[in-house]
Amino acid sequence: MRAKLLKQTLKDLFKIKRTVAIEGKPGGGKTTICREVADEMGVGFIEVHMPTMLVEDFGIPMPQPDGTIKHTLPHYYPAVGSDYPETGIMCFDDMNQANADLQKVVANMCQARNLHGVPMKEGWQIVSTGNKVSDRAGANRILSHLRNRHTVYDLETHVDDWVAWAIDHDVKPEVISFIKFRTDLLHDFDPQRESNPTPRSWIEGVSNAIGVVSPEAEYETFKGAVGEGASAEFVGFVKIFRNLPDMEQLIKKPLEAIVPSDPATLYAISGSLATYSTVDNFKNVLTYLDRIPPEFSVLSVSYAVKKNTDLMNTPEFTKWAVDKTNIII
User: Fold this and answer.
1) What are the pLDDT digits (tens) for 5-28?
2) Domains held by the chain: number
3) Domain limits at 180?
């Protein structure tokens, strides 16, 4: 299931507090989706990283003065009477890396909605995330009775969903443009490789590093995040991106500026133009975009209006949208 639909589905299932499991290749954004769903709904969020947990972390039996035994409760448990909000999502991250004893504890929480007899607040939903055994990311088989207590979704990485998210979260334009150019490199995970291009590594290891490390160190830095092949291609693309014509001059004289013919440069110039677009210069931007293949024009304008929604209120955008109706649809 694509990220956009999965997020809406999680919000729908929150109404009935259905227990959910999200599975997918490493670095696809499973935990981020859970956190963003909670933020967008305005409810609480608790993340429990299962690979670092012991059974004892879920409570240990303590003798009481009256001779009874009472379990301690972990601080992260949204128990009835606790200070946690009345509604929220409790995310068991990387559940597939938990051992069988831990899975048994979570299975009981999913079914009985309590921990050692102490009920969870009614407004909380349990969501688990994890990789598949075939990804060789340390995942174990999920116990059958625990799996039966979840609705399981496979997260599908889709470039359009990622690009929309990336624009909203200030991912560097050269990264976004490159991924649109080489869509198959967004999530090319191979457990045989030491480093892989994934949505996470493109953001944390590449986008966040641009402008931080020197140009001389970029290839090695990117290689350590997304692998040798993807790094080599991206560094080549960045050279094109950085050698584009002066955008301000191009926008001033859109009918005189050179129009490139190779796809890599067209992707680069589309992304760059989008970042330079303002209400004042948008007419000239669109004048230039009318000179390049329409698919690149649509890409650039889509990027621009997500970065600056005021552009959608301009008469130039309205005319452009009408002219490109057959392409957009």
Assistant:
1) 999 999 999 999 999 999 988 888
2) 2
3) 159-328
